[in-house]
């Protein structure tokens, strides 16, 4: 059984990531979900919340939301996702990565 890290913006792509997560689990694998969304609340509870991703990227989720600067948010979340993914991979927590979405999520993943 493999563990697959799903990196996504669960505030805007929640339905799509729910579908992907469910397919992975139905095939006997484990999904480890990282939320990189900053626009609102996630569609479901991720394993790694957006606040943790923002903090790893040197930011604060509440401040990113208040600033409403998409470029700064994507930059912070990209940095945080990369740091956490590298850390979790080194710890043997997953074997593969999956990401999808629009422009922002594609950059982050």
Looking at the structure, what is the overall shape? globular
User: Can you give the helix content as a percent range?
Assistant: 40-55%
Tell me the β content: 5-15%
How many β-strand stretches?
3
Supply the number of structural domains: 1
Helix run count: 5
User: Unreliable segments (pLDDT under 50, ≥5 consecutive)?
Assistant: none
Mean pLDDT across every amino acid position:
93
Q: SS-based structural class? A: alpha/beta
The main pleated sheet reads as:
3 strands, parallel
Note the gap between the termini: 23 Å
Strand sequence of the main sheet, in spatial order?
2-1-3
Q: Could you state the oligomeric state of the chains shown? A: single chain
Radius of gyration: 13 Å
Topology of helices and strands:
Elements: E1 3-8, H1 14-26, E2 30-35, H2 50-56, H3 61-67, H4 70-90, E3 96-99, H5 103-108
Parallel strand pairs: 1-2, 1-3
Helix pairs in contact: 2-4
